[in-house]
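Please check our next protein.
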Amino acid sequence: LFCYVSNLISSSLHSCQVSHLSASHHVVWRRGYDVLATGSVKLSPDPRLSVSSLGGSSTSLVISSLTDSDAGQYVCQVALLDGLLSVSHSLDVLSAPTVRPVVALTTVKEGEDATLECEVGGNPRPSVTWSRAGGPLPATARAACPSSNCLALAGVARTQAGTYSCVASNGVGEAAVAEIRIIVQFPPHIR
């Protein structure tokens, strides 16, 4: 029993080749306890799945328009008199990073602490970096939260008002950017 998996841009091809397979035996494709296909007959109601026979001893399970929920274990197997022959395929769906600000506009009083936060997604989990429009991050800024998707600013000064960018990247597609604006309120000042 020989199987291979090929991940294309937006679809996945799982092939299973069995040597010396008699006409009375069928290759069965499963995901968990769900039987997706047997031989060249598709049993799953999912219209994105198809089965193709590549000759008498080889079948392929094709999943088009992949989504994150397609990730998991797929098994091709053949039932024989003395047991099952099976091979498991692990499908990991890679997806470009996404990012959005939890709050796009934050207002703080001068001297207060502020935390900026972005929600990030993608597979593999994106790394997050922070930047500030028009200059470097303040010296008091530090990445926070479990995956650095927060930026903590201690004792915000009026000069720290402006736009901050949360950049998510994971090597799949382009980096994603979200902007968060900080407004710093301060008492009137007479010169």
Q: What stands out?
A: The chain has no helices and 17 strands. The chain has a mean pLDDT of 86. The CA atoms of residues 143 and 151 lie 5 Å apart.
